[in-house]
Automatic annotation (TrEMBL):
The keyword Ribonucleoprotein does not apply. PANTHER family: FI04487P. Belongs to the class-I pyridoxal-phosphate-dependent aminotransferase family. Transmembrane segments: none annotated. This is Aspartate/tyrosine/aromatic aminotransferase. Residues 26-378 form the Aminotransferase class I/classII large domain. Its cofactor is pyridoxal 5'-phosphate.
Length: 381
């Protein structure tokens, strides 16, 4: 018999709700994947790479021309140019980057601070290393970080702080003042930072994404994690990258080489060509803001309450005017009886006493017709 190393972990809520959507032929606004195609120019570049025999192992750290393009893109956006040889690593999805960074730095009884609701990968990865998770629950009225709570939680045992902006599942974004405050709090400490920035290009209303890379003192202690899958509507490709200082990158790669060793080669080659034209990514915020605004226009016809999301391609909706059910029960009922699948927020919490809000998350990375059909069903409630 085997004793599980993750006794609290079962099937993720994303898999559960997607399976339920499929079973009941419901419109799936739960899992975060687009239902529109990848840019034809990108798939052509990947196909060209395959036909040119780029089908063997890529270098462990990533195809160098791709790392060079990442460095150039980073300089254009954030004003810093990471060394593609020693500070950029291409991995099999941002999830691998997050897992590898945690594995490389967290030891038994190290404390890791996370803000909840939190993406469900963080806690299991920490616990597998014997780390201890310390939680800061974001207020359900604003989902803003509370730095007084953070200050009280930091101790001599704190090894790592993890945050996510734009934030999944709430869609909130950290501000320039937030990053400055974090920088000030960590000054003089040896605490590391893991910054999950996979929705970097999905920031709305003329706001600018705040990356740890733009703050010199934070950058020195940070792993910044990014996703090509989220950026280019190709979540199934599972390609991401991590930018970190040389010393942290060296430790990350020690783990990466024994998880996947290298990431699918023709996709890396195709991406290296696609990134040469900044037009392929600089307008993504405009594209998704149009979808957000259209969704909000449709939602205004329903009895759900909402505030337009600041970032990501997720929108929170409050159903307290409709039902008193807890969010997991209501999400299941909505899928089975109304035909629209969503994600309840409570599974993003470990401290369930802070997860009683009647809120669901829906994905708007969908064709307008998909959104229209879904909201037509929701408007009946």
């Amino acid at each position: 018999m085997i004793t599980t190393k993750l006794p609290k972990v079962g099937t993720t809520i994303f898999s559960v709700m997607s399976a339920l959507a499929q079973k009941h032929n419901a419109i799936n606004l739960s899992q975060g994947f687009p239902d529109f195609p990848v840019d034809k120019k990108l798939t052509e570049e990947v196909t060209k790479a395959m036909n040119s025999n780029f089908n063997q192992y890529a270098p462990m750290a990533g195809f160098m021309p791709l790392r060079e393009q990442i460095a150039q893109k980073t300089e254009k956006i954030y004003g810093i140019s990471p060394n593609p040889d020693t500070e950029i690593t291409v991995l099999s999805g941002a999830s691998e980057g997050i897992f590898a960074a945690i594995t490389a730095t967290v030891r038994e009884n190290d404390e890791v601070i996370i803000f909840e609701p939190a993406y469900d990968l963080y806690v299991p990865a920490i616990e597998l290393q014997g780390g201890i998770v310390r939680y800061i629950s974001l207020s359900t009225s604003s989902f803003r970080p509370d730095f007084e709570k953070l200050k009280r939680l930091i101790s001599a045992k704190t090894r790592l702080i993890i945050f996510n902006t734009p934030h999944n599942p709430t869609g909130t974004t950290w501000t320039n003042e937030d990053l400055k405050t974090l920088d000030s709090l960590l000054e003089g400490s040896r605490i590391l930072v893991l910054s999950d920035e996979v929705y970097e290009h999905l920031v709305f209303d003329n706001q600018k994404h705040q990356s740890v890379l733009s703050y010199p003192n934070l950058r020195k202690r940070s792993f910044a994690v990014f996703s090509f899958g989220k950026t280019f509507h190709a979540t199934g490709w599972k390609v991401g990258y991590v930018i970190a200082p040389k010393e942290l990158t060296a430790e990350l790669r020690k783990i990466h080489q024994y998880i996947t060793f290298s990431t699918v080669t023709p996709i890396q080659v195709g991406l290296s060509e696609f990134l040469k034209n900044e037009e392929n990514y600089i307008h993504l915020a405009d594209f998704y803001q149009q979808k957000r605004d259209y969704l909000c226009k449709l939602l205004a016809q329903t009895n759900f309450s909402f505030a337009p999301t600041q970032g990501t391609y997720f929108q929170l909706i409050d159903y307290s005017k409709i039902s008193d059910q807890k969010d997991t029960d209501f999400a299941i009922w909505l899928t089975e009886k109304i035909g629209v699948a969503s994600i309840p927020i409570s599974p993003f919490y470990q401290n369930l006493s802070n997860s009683s809000a009647k809120i669901l998350r829906i994905c708007f990375a969908k064709n307008n017709k998909t959104l229209e059909k879904a909201i037509e069903k929701l408007s009946r409630l």
